[in-house]
Amino acid sequence: MPESRMLWGAALSASQCEGAYAEDDKGLSISDTVPSGRRDLTKRYPKPDSQHYYPTHKAVDFYHRYPEDIELMAQCGLECLRFSFAWSRFFPQGDELQPNPLAVQHYDDLIDRLLAKKIVPIVTMSHLEIPFALTEKYGGWENKEFIRCFLRYSQFLLDHYGDRVKYWITFNEMNMLLYFPCTLGVGVDLTEKPEQAKLQALHNMLTAGAWTVEYAHALNQEIQIGAMIAYSPIYPVDCRPENVAYAYALERNALSVADVLVRGKYPGTFERFVRERGLTLDRMPEELKLLAKNTVDFLATSYYCSNAASVDSTAEKSSGNLFGGARNPYLEVSEWGWQIDPLGLRYALNYLYDRYQIPLMIVENGLGARDQIVNGKIEDDYRIAYLNAHLQMVKEAEADGVELLAYTMWSFLDQVSASSGQMSKRYGLVYCDVDDEGRGTFERIPKKSFYWMQDQLKNR
Ligand code: BG6
């Protein structure tokens, strides 16, 4: 395969697929404390108890089944796999001086097996996953101690895996973290100024990311290091100027994090927000210099849906919207209310590339649906239709001149849903026999979409 060709593959995340949450000296992660049922990712949860079920504890058992799963990936023809390491496996308490040797051994084997099958690893260092012990000791990312602990982790990863892993993503969907402060370790209910705590946490995370970029570049020129945002274009519901301006303001807000990652500077609208709210963020001059100097090599994004915005508070709402809120009457929605918009992906890629002029990766794109097994088969034509329409738009964007490094659909296996904790919200090309309460055989069954993807990859 020519080096410059865009890679096609699929994605997974440690806390959503691995399970084995307390095995081989793994520490508790923040995601292991979120029970099933009515999950609220805006608050921090206490340690697990026996009254609740915790879906990440077993997930789909990728931790034990990865050899068989990698065989399936190879059979499908994946060119790359985007996945994450669990920080709480390497550093169970988060602040040890040396990593857990069992974690090193585990991920060594996983990487070697992928490479043996010619599947390029794209690794996320932290995907909605923080050692719980760190949050007990220091609160969340709003505490600068987190920067020091993350650097020990990220530098170890780059030292140890840098010769085998070229593509790195520091953090998953950094702009979503403000909506889900639990994943930043920030207990917003514990502080009087939630905005202050969340934005401080974000700044510290951006700083840790910039240090990591600096370290990676000094270590090995071959390494390509990026970070990830969630991007959903926000359309005004109509051409009423107030709606256009509102959609634009929401869009700028959603991209503030990417502005720092790529341009090395907070945008004016962010500074205005900080000023007008009277926030006093601790942003040291040397940190701001670090951010300016160590911008990312590529920007990774997820794309699931587009959103619409209206200043009219009585306008029909769409659920599943995080950045917008109004219902777009031209689009179908998934069962979870996410507005399906393949053309929006072409728009998004062109928009991001015009704005930032650096290579992009689409590292998540897929459809959450309730799959049914009929006569031992899963005929997920709806997922094929979704993926096919989106992949066409990726090709169009590539033809438009957008530099794309990779497209990794979400997800190779069914996994625990991040927002709902359900197993029944399935995204995989491969069905995993586990239900919402963790019952099942964990058997893997390739769905019709698996064979469809196999064909796409074969005929590139
Ligand atoms: C992204 C996350 O926001 O969306 C993934 O990076 C997540 O971890 C994916 O699984 C789909 O969302 P959900 O809530 O349907 O699992």
UniProtKB/TrEMBL annotation:
Cellular-component GO terms for this entry:
cytosol
- Name of a matching Pfam family: Glyco_hydro_1
Task: Give the InterPro entries listed for this entry.
Answer: GH, Glyco_hydro_1
Keyword Transcription regulation attributed? no
Ordered alphabetically, the record's keywords are: Glycosidase, Hydrolase
* A Gene Ontology molecular function term of the record: beta-glucosidase activity
UniProt xrefs under SUPFAM superfamilies: (Trans)glycosidases
Q: Does the keyword Endoplasmic reticulum apply?
A: no
List the GO biological process terms.
carbohydrate catabolic process
The similarity comment for this entry is: Belongs to the glycosyl hydrolase 1 family.
Q: What is this protein called?
A: Glycoside hydrolase family 1 protein
The protein's organism comes out as Holdemania filiformis
